[in-house]
UniProtKB/TrEMBL annotation:
<protein>
    <recommendedName>
        <fullName>HD-GYP domain-containing protein</fullName>
    </recommendedName>
</protein>
<dbReference type="Pfam" id="PF13487">
    <property type="entry name" value="HD_5"/>
</dbReference>
<feature type="transmembrane region" description="Helical">
    <location>
        <begin position="68"/>
        <end position="88"/>
    </location>
</feature>
<feature type="domain" description="HD-GYP">
    <location>
        <begin position="627"/>
        <end position="810"/>
    </location>
</feature>
<dbReference type="InterPro" id="IPR003018">
    <property type="entry name" value="GAF"/>
</dbReference>
<dbReference type="Pfam" id="PF01590">
    <property type="entry name" value="GAF"/>
</dbReference>
<feature type="transmembrane region" description="Helical">
    <location>
        <begin position="261"/>
        <end position="277"/>
    </location>
</feature>
<dbReference type="InterPro" id="IPR031621">
    <property type="entry name" value="HisKA_7TM"/>
</dbReference>
<feature type="transmembrane region" description="Helical">
    <location>
        <begin position="35"/>
        <end position="56"/>
    </location>
</feature>
<feature type="transmembrane region" description="Helical">
    <location>
        <begin position="226"/>
        <end position="249"/>
    </location>
</feature>
<dbReference type="InterPro" id="IPR003607">
    <property type="entry name" value="HD/PDEase_dom"/>
</dbReference>
<feature type="transmembrane region" description="Helical">
    <location>
        <begin position="194"/>
        <end position="214"/>
    </location>
</feature>
<dbReference type="InterPro" id="IPR006675">
    <property type="entry name" value="HDIG_dom"/>
</dbReference>
<feature type="transmembrane region" description="Helical">
    <location>
        <begin position="6"/>
        <end position="23"/>
    </location>
</feature>
<keyword id="KW-0812">Transmembrane</keyword>
<feature type="transmembrane region" description="Helical">
    <location>
        <begin position="171"/>
        <end position="188"/>
    </location>
</feature>
<dbReference type="InterPro" id="IPR037522">
    <property type="entry name" value="HD_GYP_dom"/>
</dbReference>
Length: 810
C-alpha cells in the first residue's frame, strides 16, 4: 500500500461528501448546484490522482492520470461558474457557456499524447508528464482562477462594510484564493520532483467555507457534522469498492482500460448501487442522531393544532410558555401582552424569568423595530449583521432586560398583540435552522390564538360593563336610547318653556366640536350641517366657559353679535350647558318665546334644573349607545377576524350582508326590517368561534357528532349577542337562518311562514355565497351552477318567493 496516496484519497472523499451535502440542502438552488459541481471536479482530480499513485505499472497509471484530468480541466470552469452565480453577476453569465466549451475542447485534447505525453515515476508514485499543448491549458486554468478571484475581490469592495454579504464574500474569497494554491502541483508535471501537496489547500478551503456555513447559519451545524460523516462513510465504501474491483479486473486480465465509456459504465453501476441503499442508510443515521428532534417537532406540531381551542387567555399563555420551554428545553420563556390603557407591553406569563416586572412602551424603539422586522429576531444577529447596527446597542440592552436570546413579535394584521421571548437552551446549544422555522410558524399561530382570546376576553368585559350600564339606565330613566332621550327632552323643554326653537347640541369628544343631536323649529339643513368649535358663537361660548347665557335681546347684547347669514331670526334665547361631574357634555339652546316676550331668570332657572336632571340621562344614553356600538363593532370585528382567518370564508359575512340587503330591498321591506336583516347578516356566524378549526376546515364528510357541533352555532351566536340588547327580531333571524322551508332544518325545525322572513332571506344569501366559494371538501360552484342549485332546493330548503327574487337581482 502506497501511503502517499492516502492523503489525496481521504481529501477526495471529504470534498465529495461536502459537495453532496451542500447540494442536498437545497437541490433547486443554483448556488448550491454550482458549488457542488466545483467540489465534484475537485473530487475527480484528487481521487484519480490517488489511484495514479497506487498504480503498479505505467499503463494503469496513465489511465488513472488521464481520468484525473476529467476533474482538473473543469475545476477552473466550475469555480468561475460558482462565483458568477454566488455573486449574482448577470452580465458575466454569457461567458459561462464559452468557458465550458473551451474546457470540453481541452478534455478531448487530454486523451492525446500532445496534452499528456506519459507519466513519470517519482518517489511517491507515478505522475503526469506534460505534453506539447499542456502549457496552453495552464494559461486557461490560471486565467479562469484569476478572473474568479478578481470578481470576488471586486464585489467584496462594493459590499457594505460589515454586512452579511460582505462577510460571506470575504470568507469565500479567502477560501478560493487559498484553494488556488493547489495549482502548485502542476510543477511536478514538468519534472520538478516533490510530493504534490495541493490537497492541503483543498482541506483549508473546506474548513474556511465550512466555518462560514456554520457561523452564518447557511446550514444546520448538527446536520452538517453528522450528515457529512455519514456521506464520508458511504462515499468511502462505494469508492473503495469501485477502486478494488477495477484494479482486480486490471490484474486479472492485464487490459488497458482507456475507454471512458467502460470506465464510466462501471462508475454508474456503483452509483446505482449507492442510490438503492442511501435512503435506508439515511433512515438509520436520522434515527440515531435525530431522535430527540423528531420527538419535539411532533410535539410542537400537535401543540400548534390545539392553540385555537382555548379561549381563556391565562390558560392559553400558560400552555404556550410551558410547552415551548419543556419541548425546546429552554431555561427561560415569557409572553408580553399589550396593556391598552398604559400603552405598554408587560409580562403576562413567564417561566424562569428573574425580573417579570419589566415593561416596554409601545413607542419603544426596540418594540417598533421588532414590529417592522415582522419575524423571529435573534440576539446573536444583532452583534453579527450590520443591517441591525442602528438597533445593536438598544437591542442588546432589551434582550438583557428580557433575559432572552430570541424575540418573536406576535403580529395579527397591522397590530402587534404581544412578544414571545425565549432564553438559552438548557444544553447550551444555539438555535438551529429547524428551531427558527418551527418557532416562526408557532409564533404566527400563537399570535392569532392570543388575539382571539384577548378579543373574546374584551368582549366579556364589555358585556359586563353593558349590563351594569343597563341597570343604571333603568334607575335614572325610562329609555336609554339617545335619540329617544333627546327627543323626549326636546319636547318637554319646548312645551315647558313654550319656545319656538329648541336644539340639543352634544360635544363630540373626538373632534371637540358641538353637533346638533335633536332640534325642532330649525331648518333641516341647518340642523344637519351645524358643527361648532368650542368658543364659537353662543353655544361655543357657553361650552367654553361652562356657564349659562340668558340673552334678552341678541342685537343689543355686547357679548354676542347677530350673524346676518343665519337662516332664522333670534330675538331672545337661553343657553345652558349639560354638565356631569364638572365636565361639559353638551349645550341646550332655547330660542324665542311663542309669546314673543324675552326669556327671564325664571326661565333660565327652569332650564338649568331640567338640564341638571337631564345631564345624567343624556350621558347614560350616550354612553349606552357608544358602548352598544362598540360592542357591536367588537362582535363584528370578531366575526370578520373569524371570517378572515379561514381563506375559504374570507369576505363571506360582508357578501352575505350585501345579498340580504338587496333581497330585502327588492321585496319592499321597511327600512327598520332591512337594518335588522343587515345586522343579523353581519353577526350570523359569530357562534362558530366556539367550533374547532379541525371541524370547520375538515376536507371530508362530517361525523354525526361533528355535525351536531356545527348545528349549535346559531344558538351560540344568540348567546354571545344577546347581552347587547339587540331586538328580538335580529336574534330570531340569527337563531333560525338554518331552518328549511319544509321544516327539516335546525335548530327548531320551523316550517314555511313560521320562519321569520329575515331568516329566510339570510338562508338564501348565506347558501348562495357558500356555494360560489371554495370549501375544503369541494371546489366553488359557478354562478350559474349555484343558481341552478337554488332552483333545485326551491320549496324544500328555501322560500320560493325569495329564491325567485334573488335570481332576478344576482
Amino acid at each position: 500500500m502506497n501511503t502517499y496516496a492516502i492523503p489525496p484519497l481521504v481529501t477526495s472523499i471529504l470534498i465529495l461528501a461536502y459537495g453532496i451535502f451542500v447540494l442536498r440542502q437545497n437541490i433547486k438552488s443554483s448556488v448550491n448546484i454550482t458549488f457542488s459541481l466545483m467540489t465534484f471536479a475537485t473530487f475527480l482530480w484528487l481521487f484519480f490522482i490517488s489511484m495514479t499513485y497506487l498504480s503498479p505499472d505505467e499503463k494503469l497509471a496513465l489511465f488513472w492520470d488521464k481520468n484525473a484530468y476529467l476533474g482538473v480541466i473543469f475545476i477552473p470552469v466550475t469555480i468561475y461558474h460558482f462565483t458568477v452565480t454566488f455573486l449574482g453577476l448577470k452580465n458575466q453569465r454569457k461567458f459561462i457557456l464559452l468557458s465550458y466549451i473551451i474546457a470540453i475542447i481541452f478534455l478531448f485534447l487530454s486523451r492525446t499524447n500532445y496534452f499528456i505525453s506519459g507519466v513519470r515515476h517519482y518517489f511517491f508514485g507515478y505522475y503526469t508528464k506534460a505534453g506539447l499543448i499542456h502549457p496552453l491549458f495552464l494559461i486557461f486554468f490560471m486565467a479562469m482562477i484569476l478572473i474568479s478571484i478578481y470578481n470576488l475581490y471586486k464585489e467584496y469592495k462594493k459590499a457594505e462594510i460589515g454586512s452579511l454579504r460582505h462577510v460571506r464574500i470575504k470568507y469565500m474569497f479567502f477560501g478560493i484564493l487559498i484553494a488556488s494554491f493547489g495549482a502548485i502541483d502542476f510543477l511536478a508535471d514538468y519534472g520538478v520532483e516533490f510530493y504534490p501537496f495541493g490537497f492541503t489547500f483543498v482541506i483549508a478551503f473546506i474548513f474556511i467555507s465550512g466555518y462560514a456555513i456554520v457561523k452564518y447559519r447557511l446550514l444546520d451545524i448538527e446536520a452538517f457534522t453528522y450528515r457529512t460523516l455519514g456521506y464520508m462513510a458511504i462515499s468511502f465504501l462505494i469508492l473503495a469498492s469501485y477502486t478494488g474491483v477495477f484494479t482486480l479486473i486490471h490484474r486479472m486480465f492485464h487490459k488497458k482500460f482507456e475507454n471512458p465509456i467502460l470506465t464510466g459504465g462501471l462508475l454508474l453501476v456503483f452509483l446505482f448501487i449507492f442510490m438503492g441503499i442511501k435512503n435506508k442508510i439515511w433512515k438509520l443515521i436520522d434515527r440515531v442522531f435525530y431522535r430527540d428532534k423528531y420527538k419535539y417537532r411532533e410535539t410542537l406540531n400537535a401543540f400548534s393544532k390545539s392553540l385555537n381551542v382555548l379561549m381563556d387567555l391565562e390558560e392559553l399563555l400558560t400552555m404556550i410558555v410551558n410547552i415551548i420551554a419543556d419541548t425546546v428545553r429552554i431555561n427561560k420563556a415569557s409572553i408580553m401582552i399589550l396593556d391598552d390603557g398604559k400603552q405598554e407591553y408587560f409580562v403576562k406569563n413567564q417561566k424562569g424569568i428573574s425580573s417579570p416586572e419589566v415593561r416596554l412602551s409601545k413607542d419603544d424603539p426596540f418594540v417598533t423595530w421588532l414590529f417592522s422586522q415582522g419575524g423571529v429576531v435573534e440576539k446573536e444577529m444583532l452583534g453579527m449583521d450590520p443591517w441591525y447596527s442602528k438597533m445593536k446597542e438598544v437591542g442588546l440592552q432589551r434582550f438583557r432586560e428580557l433575559e432572552s436570546e430570541i424575540c418573536i413579535p406576535l403580529i395579527v394584521g397591522n397590530q402587534m398583540v404581544g412578544l414571545l421571548n425565549l432564553g438559552k437552551k438548557i444544553s447550551g446549544e444555539i438555535y438551529k435552522k429547524d428551531d427558527i422555522e418551527l418557532l416562526s410558524s408557532l409564533g404566527a399561530q400563537s399570535a392569532i390564538a392570543i388575539h382571539n382570546a384577548i378579543t373574546y376576553h374584551s368582549l366579556e368585559k364589555r358585556t359586563e360593563q353593558l349590563l351594569t350600564m343597563c341597570k343604571i339606565g333603568q334607575d335614572v330613566g325610562s329609555s336609554l336610547e339617545l335619540d329617544t332621550v333627546a327627543k323626549t327632552l326636546l319636547n318637554n323643554i319646548k312645551s315647558t318653556m313654550r319656545a319656538e326653537i329648541v336644539s340639543i347640541l352634544l360635544l363630540d369628544e373626538e373632534t371637540e366640536r358641538l353637533v346638533i343631536k335633536a332640534s325642532c323649529g330649525l331648518d333641516e339643513e341647518v340642523a344637519k350641517n351645524t358643527s361648532l368649535k368650542i368658543g364659537e358663537k353662543i353655544s361655543g361660548w357657553v361650552a367654553q366657559h361652562a356657564q349659562p347665557a340668558l340673552v334678552n335681546d341678541i342685537e343689543s347684547d355686547p357679548r354676542f353679535a347677530k350673524r346676518s347669514h343665519e337662516k332664522y331670526y333670534t330675538r331672545s334665547l337661553v343657553s345652558v350647558p349639560l354638565m356631569l361631574k364638572g365636565k361639559v357634555i353638551g349645550v341646550v339652546n332655547v330660542n324665542n318665546k311663542e309669546t314673543k316676550r324675552a326669556f327671564t331668570f325664571y326661565d333660565l332657572e327652569m332650564l338649568m334644573g331640567i338640564c341638571g336632571e337631564a345631564s345624567v340621562i343624556v350621558e347614560n344614553a350616550r354612553l349606552y349607545t357608544a358602548l352598544r356600538q362598540s360592542y357591536l363593532r367588537t362582535i363584528q370585528s370578531l366575526a370578520e377576524a373569524l371570517d378572515a382567518k379561514n381563506r375559504y370564508t374570507r369576505g363571506h359575512v360582508s357578501r352575505v350582508c350585501d345579498y340580504a340587503i338587496k333581497i330585502a330591498t327588492e321585496l319592499n321591506l321597511s327600512q327598520s326590517e332591512i337594518e335588522n336583516i343587515a345586522t343579523a347578516a353581519m353577526l350570523h356566524d359569530i357562534g362558530k368561534i366556539g367550533i374547532k378549526e379541525t371541524i370547520l376546515l375538515k376536507p371530508g364528510k362530517l361525523t354525526d357528532s361533528e355535525y351536531n357541533e356545527i348545528k349549535k352555532h346559531p344558538e351560540t351566536s344568540v348567546k354571545i349577542i344577546k347581552p347587547i340588547g339587540l331586538s328580538e327580531e335580529i336574534l330570531s333571524i340569527i337563531r333560525h337562518h338554518h331552518e328549511w322551508y319544509n321544516g327539516k332544518g335546525y335548530p327548531k325545525g320551523l316550517i314555511d311562514e313560521k320562519i321569520p322572513i329575515g331568516a329566510r332571506i339570510l338562508s338564501v344569501a348565506d347558501a348562495f355565497d357558500a356555494m360560489v366559494s371554495e370549501r375544503p371538501y369541494r371546489k366553488a360552484f359557478t354562478k350559474e351552477g349555484a343558481m341552478e342549485e337554488l332552483r333545485k332546493c326551491n320549496s324544500s330548503q328555501f322560500d320560493p318567493e325569495i329564491v325567485e327574487t334573488f335570481l332576478k337581482i344576482v
